[in-house]
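Two proteins, back to back. First:
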Amino acid sequence: MISALTHSVRLLRANYVFAREGVFSDLDPTLLPFPARVGLRLARLIERPSKASHAGRLAAALTKLGPTYVKLGQFLATRPDVVGATVAHELESLQDRMPPFPQAEAIATIERAFDRPLKDVFTSFGPAVAAASIAQVHRAQVQTDEGLKQVAVKVLRPGIERRFRIDQDAFAFAARKAESFSAEAQRLRLVETAATMRRSVALEMDLRLEAAALSEMAENTKDDPDFRVPAVDWDRTAKDVLTLEWIDGTHLSNRAALEAKGYDLKQLARAVIQSFLRHALRDGFFHADMHPGNLFVDRDGRIVAVDFGIMGRLGAKERRFLAEILYGFITRNYRRTAEVHFEAGYVPAHHSVDDFAQAIRAIGEPIHKRSADEISMAKLLMLLFEVTGLFDMRTRPELLLLQKTMVVVEGVARSLDPKLDMWTTADPVVREWIERHLGPVGRVAGAVEGTAEVGRFMGQVPGLLSRGAVLIEQLDAATRNGIVLSPETVANIGRAEARRNRWTAVALWVIAALLVYIVWLIK
């Protein structure tokens, strides 16, 4: 009861901030039930005047509510199935920029993480150069065999885990209440969405996991000519501290600086698109926050990505799905594109492949009547997911994250080369994957892998038979003798039953007293 009251107070405060910033101003009251319409009128009484757009008002409200709400906004930007495409697009503009916490607290965190003075960890340690909702970054130096080396040190915000836990408990409470009252909330799976966000943030708060993501991507991309990631300093990395190679490059968003340094902007645009597709298709592991602030160009002209807190993964089935639908649209093979959806199990088998192919053609044909620079792969995927909804395709969170990231990547590439031909740029990467995995070589490799899988299964058969025999014996004993409970289990059941009976008796006495009181009033 106390926790429910606490959550309600926190949520009321959040609603007050939303109302004050005018977040509810664009809602259509005719679509709301009567109590909500009354609440909307009250909210508009405290709304302060603002010339900002709806996206600006929403971003301002989330920023005022603190780090958890900023992260909530960023998370919901990846779930247009929950908040709608319009709101998701608005939330993409939300910048995760927070005031830095004091230098002394960052030093205390580092000394606690490594159990030694700061001077024994870093030769020098400067003020924060960037601050976000979960951590902030400092520039520092370390002593190596080659001399002093510049590093970037990411330090977790003190107390941030407790702050997020409290706010996320309130989110979960709101999601449960919404699902208990609304069938639409159940359809949108708000409880599952809140749980997914909790898991995502928990991973972000262990900086060792971000270091592991960096290490994995470094291995995946070690032979890529136009992309790399910073090296991790594992000796100076802990749960609350991450130390990386300092990237002394040019922000990809600084077009003027890139031109002044003589970089080929068209080549950089192609590299951004092709790198992302390689990571998604070849590796099944991609950077899911590739906005311009996280991308640099180093002295060798290679793209360097930073901030690996949000990563996306695609399994073999999802990668094949992505490659084949892109290839199907490139070659205008709509029938094959439709078949892939059925083979992946995304569209239920009771639907017609021909009808689905016709719906896909309605998306693909307009593309081939446009100039190359007008075609958006991200928009294509968005339209495709809208059409698949008509054919009962369930939401695929990993594909939504892919589509959201592709929107950002396309935006970055178009800012460098507005006339970029997305399909010509994507074709070699997609075609290479198709030939390697679905061509003759891929079929041979698949057959070898299938043989190995059969061998592994045959090796497990004796163990499976042994465990099956034990299970049959246990079922036979339970049938003949009944289920035998341990004394501790019996005692625990007895105590639980006693508590239940005691509270039942209390409830009955309360009801009896109320009845007596009512009879007395009638007299």
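And the second protein:
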Amino acid sequence: MRCSPNSSRTCVAQTDFITMALSEFSGSFARRLVRSLVKFYYPRIEVSGADRIPQDGPVLLAANHPNSLIDPVMLGIAARRPVRLMAKAPLFDIPIFGKVLHALGMVPAYRGTDDRLQVARNLESLAAAAKQMAAGHVMGIFPEGKSHDANQLALVRSGAARLALQALAAGAQGLKIVPVGLHYEQKERFRSAVWIKVGEPVDAAEWLAQHNGDEHLAMRTLTTELNTRLKSVVLHLDEAEWQPLLEDLEALLPAAGYKRRDALNGLRRQQAAVDAINYFYRTDRPRAEAAAARVRAHGQALRAAGVPADDMELSLQARMLVGSFSLTMLKLVTGALVGFFGLVTHLAPYLFVRFVSVWVPAPGQMTLALNRLLLGLPVYGAWYGLMAWWLSGYFVPWVVVTWLVLMPVSALVALDNARRWKTLFPRLRAETRLLLKPKLRAELLASQSVVVRELGGLAKEFHSAMPAPATIVMATNRYRPPLWLNVTVAAISLAVMVWFSAWLLRDRPTEFLRADAPNIAALPVTQLTEQMASDERSLVAVIDGLDELEKTFLAFEGDLKAGRRSYYKQADDEEIRRLLLKFLNYRTVLLRTVWKYQRNEDVKPEAVRLRALLLHYTAAAVAYDYSARFVQAFKDQDEAIRKLNEAEPRWDLPAGTYDLIRANLGNVEHRRWLESGWKNYQRTLPEWQAAGLTAGEPYEKFHASILLAAENTAKLSDELFSYKVGTALADVTGTVKGSYYRASSAVSTLIGDTKIRQPRHGKSLITPELMERLRPLLQPGDILIERRNWYLSNAFLPGYWPHSALYVGTPEQIKAAGIDQDMRIQRHLEKFTQRDASGHGYAIIEAISEGVVFTTIEHSIGEADSVAVLRPNLTPLQKKEVIARAFDHVGKPYDFDFDFFSADKLVCTEVVYRALNGMIDFPLVDILGRKTLPAVEIIKFWASGEGGPMLTFVAYLDGDERTGKCEWAGPAELAWSAGRPALTWLQ
């Protein structure tokens, strides 16, 4: 910045302001960054008595010092304000780190143990710190002078009291001195807990006034007071040799009533144990020593039996013990599987950090966590960079990013699981031994019960003598909504549930009854009479046809149960659809008749009206009767219902046919109309008799059908509500399954179209020259088995071969075979004779994520890395039928469920399976509860003694990623390929 003489003061002020602003910004950024890192290392931090730290004005935080440079960060978290601290001067000489300390407002403290020549400069540091407090800031100080591992408060020095009084002299108004206890669950352990206890503050000005302004006396007494108050908030054993007793006592405290689900349970147990030990050794030492002896004896007995002192499952009964450990073992095995990736990818940097951090100079465990944190950041950063560099040279970018994202997640799982094994395995071993030695277990249980009973009495006595002070715990209070809000939310939720249930149980209207019926009264009588005669003949044919169809349905179901038919067979699949389509056609005729003669009351003369009424009611009764028979016939057959609900676009069969018919039966309005019609039928019967509409054909058949329908439908009264419930459940499950299917299809499409590597700039191993050599060998009806390397879907499909297709020939071959006039082929011929976007002709039918489509040799074979060709040994007539069947499936969606039961959606091998079914029956295999046919199973079937005579080897192009070439191979190599893994580092 350039300044003129006249503006030098202004320029200096601007420079100071900018410098101050930059310093404040860098300090705030550094503070946030450091706190975030520490919170990541210690995710469970609880602050008790946080309200005791003022949120404005000068504050001096005096804390114990168990964890080196982590402790200052904990003070900042507890204070919820920027905290400036006095840190040992050598830290400020560390490159970069010293700059960070200055940016955070730290003040160097010069100790005699560091450099005796610099101790005089400590007075300057104290003055600087006092000045900051006078400006209203928060200062932190560790009166012990150095960090340590002992469960004791070390000698509290006079630095804190000296600093407080000096701040008062510098003009600090309302200065509060707040004792803070820092308690770490296991400070060297990653992801462990921290408990911060804030004690009662001291008003510095009042303290000085109480000592009549005598600073020397006030400083001595204030140091003693801080020592007392710090001991009340830290983990302090009056005598260090009691540490082994503390460890044994902690293991028994949960049995005496402490909450085991508390996230900081271990820290609370430690504090309670320390307070109790100190109290009883001060008030009744003989009694305390006797109780301590029993605790030690019990601990020694447990260790002699191989039982860890903290084995709280010891008190469980044997049956509960087995169940508890079985569940724990399940969690451990699951965690091991999930964390294996993290273990493998982090083992090298983890061992390096653990090894090096031990050799970094540190007085015990107090700086171990800090050393690991500071050392781990660059080491793990460098390791992740190395992994990114190595992976990017082998995999595509999205694999690299996914790998790096999953690494830390899996590493945390691995670390947590390793800790579980470390603590649980000795317990598993010990408990197994005790289960085999019930006498020893009973003795230990008896000993434990005696010790726990005595400790319970001591604990009760201790809590009555020394009640725990009430403190506010930061970030633990949860919002509890008022009663009126709870009631309102509950009422709205209940109303929504009732409305939704009523909507699900609503009546579903029947087809053809939604539109206005024709006005048959406007027709001339002669024309209406001729029309009714024709409809009467049709109605007789429908009644007779339904009777025969019912027998055929029952016979078909009998054959299914006997194993003579199967829904997985193409012929039987088509047969059940023909029967269903025939039933729907009959039903349509009946419903159209009901609709057509709705306005029969307007017809005149009376004889014609009665005839129209009879037609109308007969059709309605028969439609309801046979619909009920249809629903009842399959109500307990899940597979049949699933097949009847399946769509078939080739025959315009919609999805949910069975559910729709069942829903119509449950329509209360229709049921009431039918019952009202039955009453009207009985009243009108004499009129029909008088008009001669009861005797002779077709009227005898009509009345017999009405009476039979009345008898059958009367039995349905108890079923109607179940029909409604079944329809509602079908709606819900259909929506859920539909959503799941759409989600799974999206994921499957993404996986199926995703490559994890793209060697050779994405070019396949099958070259154009190899493809052209293969082309003349192909004949219509050949089965193509294909593989494309490096696709992510290969990892989720069984076997080396993931895809199959059917070569149906070129349009010229189709015409030469004389099957171009087959209706199944003719409706697709216009599309098939066209060319794709690259100008190549279609010759293959395959199912891909877009559905069952025509593809070209260049796309299907030319983009593969390996391909095998097998030829079915069929007659020319059979091959024509295979090709026609394949054409018949074109346009169907892809089956992302890979389920061969359904035929409305097809997976790639299902095109081959259904085209050849009945001529070559490939054996289906069960995968995840579904019958399916992986492409590799076709190879295995050909290689078996059963399938060998049915299929002939034509060609095998074997791609090898190691050499980057594709070679011609023989039948032996093809049979061997069925045992190759689906995905390796080389393919």
